[in-house]
Specification:
The complex is a heterodimer.
Chain A (H helix, E strand, L loop, with lengths): L1 E7 L5 E6 L5 H25 L7 E7 L3 E7 L5 E7 L7 H20 L12 H10 L5
Antiparallel strand pairs in A: 1-2, 1-5, 3-4, 4-5
Helix pairs in contact in A: 2-3
Chain B lengths: L6 H21 L7 E5 L1 H7 L9 H9 L7 E5 L6 H38 L8 H17 L3 H23 L8 H4 L16 H9 L4 H18 L3 H21 L8 H20 L2 H6 L1 H21 L10 H14 L13 H10 L1 H21 L3 H17 L3 H18 L2 H18 L2 H12 L6 H16 L9 E4 L4 E9 L4 E3 L4 E9 L5 E14 L7 E3 L9 E3 L19 E7 L7 E8 L2 H4 L27 E10 L2 E9 L5 E12 L2 E5 L6 E6 L4 E6 L4 E2 L3 E9 L10 E6 L10 E7 L5 E11 L3 E5 L8 E9 L25 E3 L6 E10 L6 E10 L1 E10 L2 E10 L5 E10 L6 E5 L5 E4 L4 E10 L6 E12 L8 E10 L5 E8 L7 E2 L4 E9 L5 H15 L6 E9 L3 E4 L3 E7 L5 E10 L3 E4 L2 E8 L45 H10 L4 E4 L5 E3 L5 E5 L13
Parallel strand pairs in B: 1-2, 3-15, 5-16, 18-27, 36-46, 37-47
Antiparallel strand pairs in B: 4-6, 4-9, 6-13, 7-12, 7-14, 8-10, 10-11, 14-15, 14-16, 17-19, 19-24, 20-23, 20-26, 21-22, 21-24, 22-23, 25-26, 26-27, 28-29, 29-33, 30-32, 30-34, 31-33, 34-35, 36-38, 38-42, 39-41, 39-44, 40-42, 43-47, 44-45
Classes of the chains: A alpha+beta, B alpha+beta.
């Protein structure tokens, strides 16, 4: 399961970012922020090849010693980033994909809320609880 | 290889040899063999004749050895000759050989793999060892490698890798295998990868013996994979795998709980990274490397990271140098590295040397670390991974800070901070800013430090203690009372406090000069503690009011609450500036023409903040990143008006500060800047946006008078409201209004009347009493003292006297022939009340010009008179109609003759003295006119009555007068008609003739004035005729009668009284029933005169020859009318034309009282004709 889940706006500011161990929050922020480099690289690389049938899932962005960072980008260039613990080896690619799918669905629900102002940080409780379900239960 | 001479030799020896060889082969279980028969052409030639194909050597051999496998025997003919045959046989041979070799290999390898798989299946049995299996599978890999099948070889190693990884994972899951124990032993050597040798036999031996550590196994495995990948020309996969491997190893060591010296793993990773990089560099050229930086940069960054952590661990980063504990650790780490391998001893840049050198001294570490870091930053920058580059830069900055070199650190921190701020990552922003603050403090950049401190003090991401700390930093600086000349430090206010709301009191934000106007600011302090402000000042820009003169009016300000300006909340750190692009502020602009404010020249939309919206965002630094730029150049405008408020303490959260605003000068005031002073520090808000303005205006005094009711009725005292708006003028004691009546409008002097004073917001302020002095033309009202911009209201009682002569429509000729000049009177459109405009002029104390005031009154009555006759007797009827909406009491109706002729007596026939006239109702009054002697020609009568409003209890009766004039009242002729049925008939029958006998009798002698009427001019003509006779013309007409014969005729009346003239006319009734008598009209007949045409009078027109009974005065003198033979009178215009050609006789009607018709209302019974069965039904 994930240790940090972030939703990043098209303009690269965080719409939502949540991580499990509170003490590492800053580090996750840095990690997610840095991962945007790779996201952009992948988007531009893919964009050249086949802009139409681009897959939303970007796969493993980059591994670090402790974490694996996965990315996904919507058609409106909203990025989802999931950081998983490297020691959690049971995590399969398929599970990551389904997590992204769930995240995307929930995000779409948030966007459909007429009271939500696009561009604001996400404060939806439903989204929050969905994210919590995907996170590693805080140790 | 056996030379065979011929078949015999073969049979004799070679065959046995071959049998033995075959036996040997079979003994060794090898099935891979081939027999090559080399044929030479000369031998062939020799045997050509006697060797049958069947019995050739080849056949024999085939027969002997290759019974089943025919293809094991190959013929190679003339191998040394360059002939086509030889070529063919060679290629056939090689093909066969290859096929057979492949078959053999497949068979053997298949068997090997089978064995290997069997061995692998036993892996769950006790005693199975991974190392043994490793050796077996590696053998296969070796075979593939030797066969140049690197792909397959790599596959073997990958399988081993995966198998091992799986075991480690299973171990982590609690399913430990015995053989893993050897890998869990403490690691004593961390020499790193060694990729220069194709096979590291040293490690291989270790694995074979089962003594290798995890790192050694991994190293060896990767070394082999690396070698194969490089053979496969896939160097970039090496880097990728290397990074995975390193991460993986770290995880595995952790998972297996292998004890290791602290930092040893870092050493290993560092060495490995560099080794991989060196290896890659060794096999690629520079251009390739540069093109694939993205693959290598991860390793660089990882190495940098590891070196950094090693440096921190070994105390190489601190300013003082390593401690003894750290030195010991260094020594231990270096020991684990062992000796340098032989391959790299002579290389200057080997990873081993690098690490050793870096760990040896502080300076060397710094050099190596910087080199690596800069390399990583450059690489990241080169491939556009700016964020990663900034992160590395930031760690570099941390390093510099540790080294006590804040100058170097600052630029890195600023870069990183700028990146985070521009992308709106609040947590990294806070963290970096904290480092920045530290850096700036060390650098002594006071302004920057204070600005950063202000930002941090208001940063919600920090703990309260930290915020208070930074706030205190500002306050301590502010309290340092240096010499007062020192320039105060100006900081942006936006992070210190936010202007949330601004409220004007009064809310209109528009006051007249001199009034108190207050502005309430709502400041949200972001500071964690209360901050005492020495002063809070707002600078105000004063703009002389142009107001209406420039013709441009601003659209209504969009304010949710009147007088309140809400400022958009820009959460400074949480929201990214890219998202907070200023929204368009649009405003409607209307350009009206200066002359007429109602016409619009143009209108349009204007964007008020183009300077913000259109600003190029890349070139100009964002104001939200104050750490990137020098603090905003905030200079309070010189000479500007200031709103001051001293000694304010800003508490955390919302604060409300009230300013009193100057409002002496007229104009528009704009709040521009806000400045809070705390000791040496000033927090300045350079622009207040949206625009906050208030206006100070001045107003001229105004006086209005308006009726209290919707209509003012003339004749009755009415109330009018006088409103005086003082404007800028102060009404002093003794000031008075002088009302001058132009028309007759008296102000009723109720010597004092109450007045009320309202202030500008229509609140009742004061009440006072006015004193009114009134002379006949001038009324003076003394005003109570009233402050400026107040409204004084009082009521005046006014009375408009009803003019006694009837108000006529314009252009109607009066008796004296003058046009009636009363242009200000007109009829009320709704109820036909006659209106009178009354004017007065008011002299006001504030102006040298008098103010004209006009009031409109309505006359509630309309009077009509008529003369009624009965033979000689005369009656005057006056009809008084109440046209107003009010009921009136009427009394004391009286009719008087103006000249008080003694012979004349007017006797009232009215019974009631007191009457109620309801709205829209009429009252008729009749008087009997009696006279003794001669009746005066002209009666000038005055009808007078007293009236009062019925709704008023106190009935103050007011007079009403109506003057009118009656002329030629006396009855001159009486006409009597009689209808006689035809002879022998008792009654008239419809359709049959009957006779009308009409007798005209002169009742009175022709008066002198009667003679005068036409006499003066007619004399010339009438003298020749009978002097004492008057010619009359009669006319009989009736709608239900048909006149047989002449319906009109001339009658000459003798001048003496009682002269009678009878006329007989034949008539036929058209209907049966009681028919009214036909109308008999009598006219005065004037014979044609020569000069009559010279006196046309267009005003008098006899309409259709009808005698009108209405009181329209007719002018006898010079009245012309044309006469037609048909008895009808044409319009004057045509008559005039005719009269020019031929002098025509004239007809002149008598005035209403002069001819009395006795049979006016008579009826005669007409029976239906006997034989007539026509029944006529008139349905109406």
């Amino acid at each position: 399961m994930a240790v940090c889940i972030a939703v990043i706006a098209k303009e690269n500011y965080p719409l939502y970012i949540r991580s499990v161990p509170i003490q590492n929050e800053l580090k996750f922020h840095y990690t997610v922020h840095t991962s945007l480099d790779v996201v952009e690289e992948k988007i531009s690389a893919v964009g050249k090849a086949m802009a139409d049938q681009r897959e939303l899932y970007l796969g493993l962005l980059y591994p670090t010693e402790d974490y694996k960072v996965y990315g996904c980008v919507t058609n409106s260039k909203v990025k989802f980033v999931i950081v998983a613990d490297s020691s959690n080896t049971s995590l399969r690619d398929n599970e990551i994909r389904s997590m992204f799918r769930k995240l995307h669905n929930s995000f779409t629900d948030v966007m459909c809320n007429p009271f939500y102002n696009p561009g604001d940080t996400i404060q939806s409780k439903a989204f929050d609880s969905m994210v919590s379900a995907m996170m590693v239960q805080a140790s | 290889m056996t030379p065979i001479e011929d078949t015999e030799v073969y049979k004799a020896s070679v065959r046995d040899n071959m049998m033995r060889w075959q036996g040997n082969l079979r003994l060794h279980g090898s099935a891979d063999w081939v027999i090559v028969v080399v044929e030479t052409s000369d031998a062939k030639k020799k045997n050509k004749t006697n060797i049958l194909p069947r019995s050739s050597l080849v056949d024999k051999i085939r027969n002997d050895f290759c019974n089943k496998q025919n293809d094991r025997c190959v013929v190679l003919s003339d191998p040394l000759k360059n002939s086509s045959r030889s070529q063919e046989s060679w290629s056939a041979f090689l093909l066969k050989l290859r096929t057979l070799l492949l078959m053999s290999f497949t068979q053997n390898l298949g068997r090997f793999e089978e064995d290997m798989r069997t061995l692998r299946e036993k892996r769950n049995q006790p005693g199975w060892s991974f190392c043994d299996y490793f050796m077996v599978q590696e053998e296969l890999a070796f075979v593939f490698e030797m066969l140049q099948q690197f792909e397959d070889a790599l596959l073997q190693y990958d399988e081993l890798d995966a198998l091992f990884t799986q075991y480690v994972l299973n171990f982590g899951a609690g399913d430990g295998a015995n053989w893993l124990g050897s890998f869990c032993s403490p690691v004593k050597s961390w020499t790193g990868l060694l990729l220069r040798r194709p096979i590291d036999m040293e490690k291989r031996d270790g694995i074979q013996r089962g003594q290798a550590s995890l790192l050694e196994l991994r190293s060896y495995l990767f070394c082999r994979q690396c070698t194969l990948l490089i053979f496969l020309q896939r160097p970039w996969e090496v880097t990728q795998r290397a990074l995975e491997l390193l991460h993986n190893c770290v995880q595995e060591l952790c998972l297996l709980e292998v004890s290791m010296l602290e930092g040893a793993l870092d050493c290993w990773v560092f060495l490995s990274c560099l080794e991989v990089l060196h290896r890659i560099e060794g096999c690629c050229d520079q251009a390739q490397l540069e093109a694939n930086v993205s693959h290598t940069v991860g390793l660089w960054a990882y190495a940098t990271d590891k070196l950094k952590s090693l440096g921190y661990m070994c105390g190489l980063v601190s300013e003082r140098g390593p401690l003894s504990l750290e030195l010991n650790r260094t020594v231990d780490l270096l020991a684990g590295l062992g000796d340098e391998k032989a391959e790299t001893v002579h290389s200057l840049q080997s990873p081993y040397k690098k690490l050793k050198e870096a760990l040896s001294s502080v300076e060397a570490f710094e050099r190596h670390y910087l080199e690596l870091s800069h390399a990583a930053v450059e690489m990241y920058t080169a491939i556009g991974r700016m964020r990663s580059a900034r992160l590395v830069g930031k760690s570099l900055a941390e390093f510099y800070m540790r080294k006590g070199d804040p100058e170097q650190a600052e630029s890195f921190l600023q870069n990183a901070l700028g990146s985070y701020v521009s992308e709106g990552w609040s947590l990294p922003v806070t963290h970096t800013r904290k480092q920045m603050a530290e850096c700036q403090k060390l650098l002594g950049k006071t302004e920057n430090y204070l600005q950063t401190s202000a930002l941090l003090a208001g940063d919600a991401n920090l703990t309260n203690e930290e915020r208070i700390h930074f706030c205190q930093e500002i306050l301590t600086f502010a309290d340092q009372s240096t010499d007062s000349k020192a320039q105060k430090v100006a900081l942006s206010m936006s992070y210190f406090a936010q202007l949330k709301q601004l409220q004007f009191r009064p809310a209109t934000a528009t006051v007249h000069s001199g009034t108190a106007l207050q502005v309430e600011l709502c400041l949200r302090s972001l500071m964690p503690v209360a901050v005492p402000l020495e002063q809070l000042a707002a600078s105000v820009h004063f703009n002389l009011e142009q107001g209406e003169t420039n013709g441009k009016t601003r659209g209504p300000q969009r304010r949710p609450y009147p007088g309140t300006v809400l400022f958009p909340l820009g959460n400074s750190s949480a929201m990214p500036p890219s998202a907070a692009v200023p929204s368009l502020e649009l405003e409607e602009i209307q350009d009206r023409s200066p002359s007429d404010p109602r016409t619009l020249n143009s209108t349009g939309m204007v964007c008020k903040n183009t300077h913000l919206v259109m600003r190029r965002r890349d070139s100009s630094p964002s104001p939200d990143t104050p750490n990137l730029v020098s603090p905003v150049p905030v200079v309070m405008e010189d000479g500007a008006k200031m709103l001051m408020s001293g000694d304010v303490t800003l508490l955390p959260g919302n604060n409300s500060i009230v300013f009193s605003v100057p409002s002496q000068e007229l104009g528009t005031y704009t709040l521009r800047q806000l400045c809070a002073t705390v000791g040496q520090v000033q927090f300045v808000l350079p622009h207040i946006s949206p625009l906050v303005q208030y206006e100070v205006y001045s107003q001229e005094p105004q006086l209005t008078v308006e009726p209290l009711t919707d209509q003012l009725l003339a004749g009755l005292p009415q109330r009018a409201k006088v409103r005086l708006q003082t404007g800028h003028y102060t009404v002093k004691k003794g000031d008075a209004l002088q009302l001058t009546n132009i028309d007759s409008i008296p102000i009723l002097t109720s010597s004092s009347c109450p007045a009320t004073i309202f202030n500008s917001t229509a609140e009742r302020v004061d009440e006072s009493v006015l004193f009114i002095q009134s002379s006949d033309k001038v009324t003076s009202i003394s005003l109570p003292p009233t402050p400026p911009y107040h409204t004084l209201e009082f009521q005046l009682e006014v009375l408009c006297v009803i003019p006694s002569d009837p108000v006529r429509p314009e252009n109607q000729r009066l008796t004296n022939g003058e046009i009636h000049h009363r242009p200000r009177s007109y009829s009320h459109p709704d109820n036909h009340m006659t209106a009178i405009n009354q004017r007065m002029s008011v002299d006001c104390p504030w102006s040298i010009y008098s103010t004209p005031i006009s009031l409109t009154f309505y006359i509630p009555f309309k009077a009509k008179h008529s003369l009624l006759s009965a033979g000689n007797r005369k009656y005057i009827q006056v009809c008084l109609q109440n046209v107003s909406d009010v009921n009136f009491h009427l009394m004391d109706q009286r009719l008087t003759e103006k000249h008080h002729e003694s012979s004349l007596e007017l006797q009232s026939l009215n019974t009631k003295a007191h009457q109620l006239v309801c709205s829209k109702q009429s009252v008729y009054c009749v008087w009997d006119v009696r006279w003794k002697e001669n009746m005066p020609v002209c009666l000038q009568c005055v009808f007078s009555a007293s009236f009062s409003s019925a709704s008023e209890e106190v009935s103050a009766f007011k007079p009403y007068h109506y003057e009118f004039q009656l002329e030629r009242v006396t009855t001159l002729y009486s006409v009597r008609a009689e209808i006689m049925p035809a002879a022998g008939q008792q009654n008239c029958h419809s359709g049959s003739l009957c006779g009308l006998e009409m007798s005209i009798t002169r009742l009175a002698e022709p008066d002198d004035d009667e003679e005068d009427d036409g006499g003066t001019e007619e004399k010339g003509q009438t003298e020749t005729e009978e002097v004492c006779s008057t010619k009359l013309m009669y006319e009989v007409a009736g709608s239900s009668w048909v006149v047989y014969g002449r319906s009109s005729g001339l009658v000459s009346m003798p001048a003496d009284a009682n002269a009678n003239h009878r006329v007989q006319v034949e008539l036929m009734p058209l209907f049966a029933g009681h028919l009214p008598f036909p109308d008999i009209k009598v006219f005065k007949y004037l014979p044609p005169s020569a000069n009559s045409a010279s006196q046309p009078d267009t005003d008098s027109c006899v309409e259709n020859g009808m005698l009108s009974l209405i009181d329209r005065p007719l002018d006898d003198q010079g009245d012309t009318a044309s006469f037609c033979s048909q008895g009808s009178v044409h319009s004057v215009g045509s008559g005039e034309q005719q009269s020019r050609v031929l002098p025509m006789p004239r007809l002149e009607p008598f005035s209403p009282g002069q001819v009395f018709n006795h049979s006016q209302g008579c009826q005669v019974l007409v029976l239906p004709s006997t034989d007539d069965c026509v029944l006529e039904i008139n349905a109406t």
